[in-house]
Each structure stands twice: as structure tokens, then as C-alpha cells.
Write a structure and sequence with these properties.
The structure is a homodimer of 401-residue chains. Chain A is 42% helix and 14% strand. Chain A is of the alpha/beta class. The first copy, chain A, has 2 domains: 247 residues, 3-Layer(aba) Sandwich (Aspartate Aminotransferase, domain 2), CATH 3.40.640.10; 123 residues, Aspartate Aminotransferase, domain 1 (Alpha-Beta Complex). Chain A starts with 11 loop residues before the first strand and ends in an 8-residue tail after the last helix. The model of chain A has no long low-confidence stretch (mean pLDDT 96).
């Protein structure tokens, strides 16, 4: 059997990530590989840290891209900060909070779970109650933007609460980074991780992380060794720390880092505030179309993420059938529901490079066509018009990449 | 401060990895990103497993590329197979054996260390003695091809010995895969990990692994949870297992996988035996040049890796100065010594796409120039001739990519 080169189709990626990667970033991936200790690469690493400081709005020295996807960024935060016997308040309002609990328990620590219904933000009062009940808690962990539901929690308030109870705060910003306001230093976040394949629109495979000085101090003063050699920041910083002393720890994913660097340069060119505004703007247009069809959102408006739209299936719609038709006839990917929302919602991403007027209208038009053909109970033929009307009435104040 | 796109220099990579990546693989990296659950991507994943079966010479069902560099592949093997309280015989004859010991201890297990001098292969008698002394040993772990020294150990004999003592064998094949003979099924290897940036000449960032049915059974029957959520194969196989049931675990590094797929297609085109022969062939040419200069190798001929040549510095040579000149004047990277060999050796890689006549002659010529200018004690002006004479006398029996 002979296997040939793999030529992927050209999709429009409007699921929960990966999002469409711009040609500039794809082109950067293909630049010649150089060594992970090459002086030119080390210079690029310094730029990478500066660019990540900007994206995270932080001056944390301990800021770097972990050499693996977001799930490994999550694990980096937990295995470095949590020790056996610790107590961690974990807020669960979707898939990724549940994953945090798994991480805590695999560190030999106790997870105190604060649960909220999927689609709701984390309830701050419940977290406060848990902290009062468990005064020996060391860390509060929560998801800023739940990719499984599209709900945004109040990170600033949750971090403040954690600090009032002398806890560190670990924040999942996989889907929020570069999509909605996120201010690591102003909000006092102690440990944060993100992904590259959401609102940064770089290929998956890296996880930007950042740790406050207090968190870094906690890591340096651990009583036990970090259980992961690969993710042990005490070792990783020998490579990602001061440029003058850089030594081999593991071989960095060179070309993937080229891609992330380029995506971050593009973010810097657009401006972080402009990127946030762009996500809110096109979300409003998508919403106009979705609502014109008679469909609704899982998350209420006050806590809805612009970049991840969990839309309730209209009566008569077959989940897999519709997504299959969108992929086959329109080469358009939208996301399925996860966990308790499986089969009940679609997750329409408007992330990074994929967040633009063309995609909003294309997605609405494709949905309209497929749902109409399937005789679902929607207002047919009005969605694209509604979005176009939004755009006509509200000309973009920001550059819409 | 404004940061611009990063345009890396064009190097010739003849260090310990990454090795030169072919234009075909670089081009594959830049293909459009698609979703990690896209039917086309799932088809590609099946091909990937078939291609890895070929490269590893195995039919192990549990064969996949871990979504992170080789160090994470090492960790995947240890955290999945080792449980707290286990005993593991770890053979150390260079940097990477030492790293295995770290992994064992971070799993809460005991490492019984069998040490050999750097540059020597693992001494099988010593391993047997250790196994006799520790009859409760569960696993024997060793490095097939020590990247820090260029020494190759007898993997087949070591695995056989491990099995005689009812142990599993974990094998580090980061530098050996596709460079020297490696036969996972024939030799009965239970768990193996490799990297992409050595003799496969794909960019770093992935780690192909494979587990025998006996090892897979051991993982399924663990008494404790795998301490890493990200690397837990019981979970990862929900994504990399049978195509029909594939579900999200973490977001795969899509574009990096395009690159590895292309590199494996190229390996299949060349033929594994031809690739092994090519590495041996160009190593012999390099050796002719190195010896003509009057320089020698750290490892004796019987155990010397063709793809990783640890060459002793000639009298009068300043390690950093020479490597700096090679990089600056020739855009040529060779590797420094690690650990106890730091400052004493250079590591000249002839890996994958970088293993060809042009590179052998270029490297010898550059070394000759720089060492002569630095007035080191070498036979000047003869190295390239010696290699050319080798090539003239021994025309390649194999395609020399």
C-alpha cells in the first residue's frame, strides 16, 4: 500500500477552534527550520515573550508558550502550583472546568467543586461560600470563557475574591485571549493559560502561559518535585528564561513558534482593543441573523462570548445531518455541542482571522439553505438580509480584518 | 516598540537535531488548517498510523504521534507504564538515560541505575546483574541511540534480557528511528518513543510512540490513575483509536501533523532499508574526512551511530569560537557537547534530509577552513579530498536523497 501526500480541503473554520489561519501565518510556518539554540531563534524567543506580554496585558517575567496544546497549558498550571494534599476550589460550568478537577486530583490534591448550570457563568456567591467553608483552600481555578457553552465569567471579580481569601487564581483563557477583554496584571491573575488556535488564529500545538511573581515564588518554594518533567517550569525556564543563559531543556517546536510569532505580530498591528471590538461587532451581526431565523442562544446576553456562539437547534433539525451538509456542500465547519449540550446546540465560532463580515454572511446563508431544505421550523430567507442590514446601519468603527 | 515578522536565516543543520527539513515538508506545513474532527483529517490520521507502523516496523494498535516533542514522548511511556512503588532498571550512558531516571522518580517509583561511561553502549552484563539483584523489577528502560554521545546500544539483546526477567522494555529511539535498523515487533519492544526532528527531518513538536499489546494491557489494568491528564493514553486513544469512534480529547497540532505525514511519505518512498543504508554510507564519507584531518570519534566503531558523530576537539580548538565561526561564516550548525562532554566534543549530525554528500563535503570544508585559521593541530586541506575519494571509490548503492 502506498500513501500519498495529504492535501487538505480548504475549509471555512467557524467551530470552537481551530479557527481559520491567515495566509501570513501559514506562510510563516513554512520558513526554514533553524536550531532551538540558534542566536537568531533566541532573539525570536525574546520577541515572543514581548508579544505575549502585550496579548496577556502583563509584565510577568514567567511568560512563555508551552510546547504543546492548551490542555498541556492547563496541566502546566496545575502540576506546578498544586502539591499533594492541597485544596483547590474548582468552578465547573462546562467541559473545561471538569477537566480542571481531573488535573487537581491527579496532582494528589482535593478539589472542592462549585457547580453551575452549563451556559451560566460562575456564580461568585457560591465560590465565596465554598471559600468560607474551606478556609484552608490554596487555589481558586475557573474558566474565563467556557468553550463548551459560550459563557463568560467575571474573571476580575473571581480573582479579587480568591485574593481576599489568600488564594492564588488559575484562569483558563483558551478562548478568551484576543477575543474579549483580558487584563492579567490589572486583574491580578496568578496563573493563566491559553491556546493558539482560537482568537489568535495560529495553528494548534502551543499554549501561551503566564505566572505572577507570587505564583512563580510558590513554584520555586515547592516542597515536592513537579510530577511532570516536561512541564516543570523550574526546568523549562532554563530554556525560556534570560536569553544570556539559555540552555537545552527540550527541543522547541520551531516552526509552530514561527506561526505563533506571526499571529502575535498581526495582533499587535491590529491592536488588542480593536480585536476585542471586532469580535463584538461581528457577533452582533451574526446574532441579528440567528435571531431573524427565530433561533436563540444558550447563554444570556450579559454573559455571552462574541467569539463562541452556542445556538439552540431549531425544531426539526438533525444535528449531525446539518453539520454534515454544511461541511460537504459549503466546506464550512461549525461545532457540535459537548457533554450535556450534545445534540442540542451548535457552536459557531467567530474567532480571530475567521471573525469577519464575509464569514458571518456566508455562515448565515449556508445555515438558511440547509435548514430550509430540511424543512426545519425557521424563518427562511431572512438571515443574511438581517446581518447585512446590521452592517449597513452600524458601519465598523474598527478595522475588520 | 513594534515587532516585525520573523524571517529566519537559511542554515545547514548538522547538529543533534533539528535536522534540515526538506522543502516538501515545509510546504506541507503551510497547507490550510482544518478541524481535528474533520472526516478528511481523520482519514489522514489513519494514514499516519499506517506510516508509523512502517517506520517502527510494528503492527502495534497503540501507535500514534504524541502532540508534543520527544521529551513528552518519553514522559508518555513512563507515566502510563509506571505506578508508585514500582521498580525500574534505568540504564544511563548519557544525558537521556539520566532524564529517564527523573521520570521514574517523578512517578513515585524506584530507579535502579545501571551506569556506563559516556560514549559506551549499555553493558548487558551489568543489566543482567541488576535484574538478578532486583527480581521485583517491572521495567527495563534504556536509550537505543544516545544523542549526547553518539553511542548505540544493542536494543534487541536488552529487550530479550528484560523479557527473560519478566520485565517490560521501554526504549528511547529519538535519534535512531529511520537512521539505523530498528525493528519494534521483531525485537519485542514494549514501549518506544521517538522524535520528528532527527532522522525523519520533520520539524520538532511531535513524538511518535508505540506500545505492544502487553504494554497496552498493563496500561488498561493500572491500579492508579495516570498522573498526567494530557498524556493519559486511556484518554488519548479516544481520539487516536478506531476512526469510527473518534472523540475530542485535546486539539491535535494539525499543521505539524501535515509535516510529519509528508516526512513519513518520503520515508516510505525511499524505503526504510535504503534510509538506513544512506546514513551508514555518508557517515563513512564523513569519517574519512574527519580521520584525514587527524581527529577521532568518542565512540568506538562497533557502537558508533552514523547519524550522530561525536568528534573530539583537536588540540588548540576553542569550542564556542569554532561553532560561532561555522554559524556566522557558513550558516552551518553543528552541536556542542553536553554534560561531561561539554567543551570536549562536537556533535555532527547526519540526519534524514541533512544526510547527503553535499552536506558532508560542505561541513568538512568549513571545519577545515575554520580550524586551519585558528591554527589548531590538524592536517589541513585534506578532509574534503578524503571524502571525495571515498565517494569515488564507493559509488552509492542506494538513492542518496
Amino acid at each position: 500500500m502506498t500513501i500519498s501526500s495529504f492535501i487538505p480541503p480548504q475549509r471555512t473554520l467557524m467551530g470552537p477552534g481551530p479557527s481559520d489561519v491567515s495566509p501570513r501565518v501559514l506562510e510563516a510556518l513554512a520558513r526554514p527550520t533553524i536550531g532551538h539554540l540558534d542566536p537568531e531563534f533566541i532573539r525570536m524567543m525574546e520577541e515572543m515573550k514581548t508579544l505575549l506580554h502585550y496579548a496577556f496585558q502583563t509584565e510577568n517575567a514567567l511568560t512563555l508558550p508551552v510546547s504543546a496544546p492548551g490542555s498541556a497549558g492547563m496541566e502546566t498550571c496545575f502540576v506546578n502550583l498544586v502539591e499533594p494534599g492541597d485544596k483547590v476550589v474548582v468552578c465547573i460550568n462546562g467541559v473545561f472546568g471538569g477537566r480542571m478537577k481531573q488535573n487537581v486530583e491527579r496532582c494528589g490534591a482535593t478539589a472542592v467543586v462549585v457547580e453551575d448550570d452549563w451556559g451560566n457563568p460562575v456564580d461568585i456567591q457560591k465560590v465565596e461560600d465554598a471559600l468560607k467553608q474551606h478556609p484552608d483552600t490554596k487555589i481558586v481555578a475557573f474558566v474565563h470563557a467556557e468553550t463548551s457553552t459560550g459563557a463568560q465569567s467575571d474573571a476580575e471579580a473571581l480573582v479579587k475574591l480568591a485574593h481576599q481569601h489568600d488564594c492564588l487564581a488559575i484562569v483558563d483563557a483558551v478562548t478568551s485571549l484576543a477575543g474579549t477583554p483580558l487584563k492579567v496584571d490589572e486583574w491580578g491573575i496568578d496563573a493563566i493559560y491559553s491556546g493558539t488556535q482560537k482568537c489568535l488564529s495560529a495553528p494548534p500545538g502551543l499554549s501561551p502561559v503566564s505566572f505572577s511573581e507570587r505564583a512563580a515564588e510558590t513554584i520555586r518554594n515547592r516542597k515536592t518535585a513537579v510530577q511532570s518533567w516536561f512541564l516543570d517550569l523550574n526546568l523549562v525556564m532554563g530554556y525560556w528564561g534570560p536569553a544570556a543563559k539559555r540552555a537545552y531543556h527540550h527541543t522547541a517546536p520551531i516552526n509552530n513558534l514561527y506561526g505563533l510569532h506571526e499571529a502575535l505580530v498581526m495582533l499587535q498591528e491590529e491592536g488588542l482593543e480593536n480585536a476585542w471590538a471586532r469580535h463584538a461587532y461581528h457577533h452582533a451581526a451574526l446574532r441579528a441573523g440567528i435571531e431573524a431565523m427565530g433561533m436563540g442562544f444558550v447563554v444570556d446576553e450579559a454573559h455571552r462570548l462574541p467569539q463562541l456562539n452556542a445556538v439552540t437547534l431549531p425544531p426539526g433539525a438533525d444535528d449531525a445531518e446539518v453539520r454534515g451538509r454544511l461541511l460537504k456542500d459549503f466546506s464550512l465547519e461549525i461545532g457540535a455541542g459537548l457533554g450535556s449540550l450534545a445534540g442540542k446546540v451548535w457552536r459557531i465560532g467567530l474567532m480571530g482571522h475567521a471573525c469577519n463580515q464575509r464569514n458571518v454572511e456566508f455562515c448565515l446563508g449556508a445555515l438558511d439553505t440547509v435548514l430550509s431544505e430540511q424543512k426545519c421550523d425557521i424563518n427562511a430567507g431572512v438571515a443574511v438580509d438581517a446581518a447585512q442590514q446590521f452592517y449597513a446601519n452600524q458601519p465598523a468603527a474598527v478595522k475588520t480584518a
